[in-house]
Structures are given as structure tokens and as C-alpha cells.
Predict the structure.
Amino acid sequence: MTHLTAEHAARFMALTLGHLTREFPHKLDHVMDGPEDARTPRELHPIFFGSFDWHSCLHGWWQVLRLARHYPDLPEAVRVHTLADAMLTAENFAVETAYLARPSARGFERPYGWAWALALHAEMVRHDRPWAHHADAFAATFAERFRQFLPVQTYPIRVGTHYSSAFALTLARDWAPDHDPALVALIDARARDWFGKDRDCQAWEPGGDEFLSSALTEALLMSRVLGSDFSAWFDSFLPAAAEGRPATLFTPATVSDRSDGKIAHLDGLNLSRAWCWRGIAAALPNGHLAREPALLTAQHHLDAALPHLGDDYMGEHWLATFALLALERT
């Protein structure tokens, strides 16, 4: 079983440091209300202007800060702290937070970026650095958006892309206990409403541009929400998991062209499935027949993706984050 090592950490940080401040090419999520809003990524976002898009830059910061905390003696960790001291300033976070107040930014990065903003905040406050609490108001804004939006979101979004409800709620729920306990209760209620009665999942996946498994992210979320009741729910949701069915969930995706941004998502699918399968296995009781198949499948997915993190910028600008998620599950 592959574990997170210092070698992985150095490689991941080096890859991500190579693009956190690379402004172009860039894919903006930006509504222009007038000609004055035609601005460059760095003008709009003084921190999260790199890594091809806002959310990838944000979770790239989460990744390098987390690895720098785990491996502080690596040369790459020193570079991370130097860059963080220069960029994660109170002034820069004030600009990032002010952007969210624009009326046309109501749906900005919903829900994927919202969830990663909370994950970044949770990581920042674990550091003994001057910037540890500079994202407090930034994170509070996204937590409030979850509180306002979840009650009016009648149906979950069951996809394997950025709009996934289950993925966002998983990250948000990991943040909430230490920062907003009331949000935990809201997330749990919505998860139970949306997914609690799901049975016999057919897992018609992957789609051609998915980097998440809609089935497995749902199961991972429910493992957080249900606690000791998760095993019974899982046995109804994927009743043939111990036999490796549905086969689609146990077979790594084929990535035919890593220079195509959408097809390159499938490397992320392999990594995020490894993360999910390891998390699901950890939540199942000892002796559960699906545990070993889950762990073996996770390893197969890791083997398919880890060699390709830096093959092309379409994957390089974000894949190391999902590799860290998967490897941390050990």
C-alpha cells in the first residue's frame, strides 16, 4: 500500500510552487457587470490568480501548507513559508473577501470553491505564522453561504465535477466541528434528506470529464454523517461491493489525452476514488467483506494516476492536491 512520504511531499510542493503564481493561462469565473470589470486575474484576486483557475490555486495553497506542516525541514517547505508570508496577507484576503460581496458573485465557485475555502482556512489556523487567522472573515463568508443555500437547495447535484453536492459537503463538514457546529447539523440533515434512502447504486460512471465518483463521494460523506450506522447504509447502497460490483467503481479510468483539460480530469477521478475507497474502508467495521476489495481498488487507482501528475499543465495545476487527499487516507 502506497503511503505519503517525504519524497511525495517534496514532489507535490515543487509541482505546485511552479504554478501558484503563474497567472496565465487562466480560466476566470467572473461575471462582468460593466466595462470596468474587465480586469486581469491578479487584479481581481491578489492571492488566487495562479494555477489556471481560482479554485485550483486555492486548494493548491491548502496542499502546500499542509505538506509544509507535515515536513517542515524540506527545502520546499521553506519556499512555501516564504511565499505564504509574502502573499497570505490581511490586505490580500480583504480583497478576496470583498470580491464575494459583488451582487453577481452570489454563485461564485459554488459549491466546490466554497468547500475548499473552508479547507484552506482549517489548514491555515494550524500554523504558527502571522497569517494564520488572515482568512477568518473569508471562511466565515463561505460558511454563511452554505447556511443560506443548503435550506433552499431542494435536490442534490449528483455529478462527478465541481458541482457535486456530496464532495462539497464532505470538505465543509470536516471544517465545521471546530469552527461552526451548527453547520454540522445542517449538513447532516441535508445529507440524510438527499442520500439517506439511496439503495442499489448502479454507478453509471465515469463520465468523460469527471474527476469525482458521484457514488463514492456520496458514500464517503455518509460515512461522516452516519457514524456507526454507516455499515448498514453502505450494504444497501452498494450491496455487491465485496464481489467487486458494480465493476465501474473498481476499474481505473483510462486517460487517453492528458493535454485535454477535460479528459485529464480522469486522472483526478482515479485519485479521488482512491481517497474515497480508503475512507470508506476505514469507516467499515473490522471483518467487513468489502474492506479488502476497497483497499486493493484504491491502490490500483493510485498506481494508475500517481506517475502522471506533471505530464501536462492541464493536470499539473491541480492533481497533486487529490494525490495528497488519497495518500493521507493511509
Q: What stands out?
A: The mean pLDDT is 98. The radius of gyration is 19 Å. The CA atoms of residues 14 and 110 lie 29 Å apart. Residues 198-330 form one domain.
